[in-house]
Amino acid sequence: xxxxxxxxxxxxxxxxxxxxxxxxxxxxxxxxxxxxxxxxxxxxxxxxxxxxxxxxxxxxxxxxxxxxxxxxxxxxxxxxxxxxxxxxxxxxxxxxxxxxxxxxxxxxxxxxxxxxxxxxxxxxxxxxxxxxxxxxxxxxxxxxxxxxxxxxxxxxxxxxxxxxxxxxxxxxxxxxxxxxxxxxxxxxxxxxxxxxxxxxxxxxxxxxxxxxxxxxxxxxxxxxxxxxxxxxxxxxxxxxxxxxxxxxxxxxxxxxxxxxxxxxxxxxxxxxxxxxxxxxxxxxxxxxxxxxxxxxxxxxxxxxxxxxxxxxxxxxxxxxxxxxxxxxxxxxxxxxxxxxxxxxxxxxxxxxxxxxxxxxxxxxxxxxxxxxxxxxxxxxxxxxxxxxxxxxxxxxxxxxxxxxxxxxxxxxxxxxxxxxxxxxxxxxxxxxxxxxxx
Length: 438
Fold this sequence. Notes:
Number of strands: 22
Largest sheet: 10 strands, mixed
CATH class of the largest domain: Alpha Beta
Radius of gyration: 22 Å
Strand content: 25-35%
């Protein structure tokens, strides 16, 4: 099978709604501009009747639209498949695409649990076809420049990394799919949360910056996790985690239960300087004894990801890091570990304010959470360590050395017993699941 058509990789993608629809929009934009190294030739959408206008527009462009996944897998004019699909479908659709001989670009997170990632790695090795993961900021060539600066000692030995992000989300966000905010869906682990999903790119990026080689990610060896929810969801919407990777603390402070949007910001602190990355404004600043240098990040790293994928499939050199299944596994180990280390605590209703989003949807926010997270980031403290919120509890801890299986979320009794032992004090849990010192 030829992989090149007019010097472009021939792609099929899955879905026309939600994020999948935005992927189609990007591919059509590239097509209209005659730019990029990929060419959209086919789309699979199981519910064609819900997208009739979109289907007509695609067909008018000569793009095949089908309602069976096997139709794109059996199409000899398709070289690779993009999978912007729900988390619980990542593993099965990747395995089917590989079995059909297609290369795969799968959405982040690569899977809900580490066991599924390992199964995908085995499927890739059997098929001998490339698989990359859409951690889009990884593919920005400027990120590789930042990694090289760290490896070359621009800020000295790295002492810490802090990730802070506040993105308001409303009730509609958690209604948009049947798996949003859930721990499991259709018998599969999804662990949907800010750390797993919306902010996944940035935690993945933090571990990349800590890797000891240009193409490596630092493996987290332990986690201390605080998990909170203000919304009526199964999993958490607010996270305060501390990972240890390459001997360096990685502090993660993220929430959707906020009123103000902040960041995400990554700060890498070294013995002789800092690297501050603003992923909203798309710039990075390297500061050391020689002064300050600003790098402008790619305005749309999704394009960088598509081009890098095309080059990788065609065995061409790339000028960025590649988020392979092994690299994406690092993120899954971290998020699995956090969920296994701690129970999800409900923020007391007295500390949650109802509101209305700019779209007119009901929303919830925790007053002062943005300032608290910024202060925690500056101090290098978790939410509980800071004492800024009176409803927090000590984080649960877990070793991630050799981590190879997600064993589920802990029960309240197990978590409380661990906290009591570690702190030599009694902790009780009320009927809402919020702990308080006895």
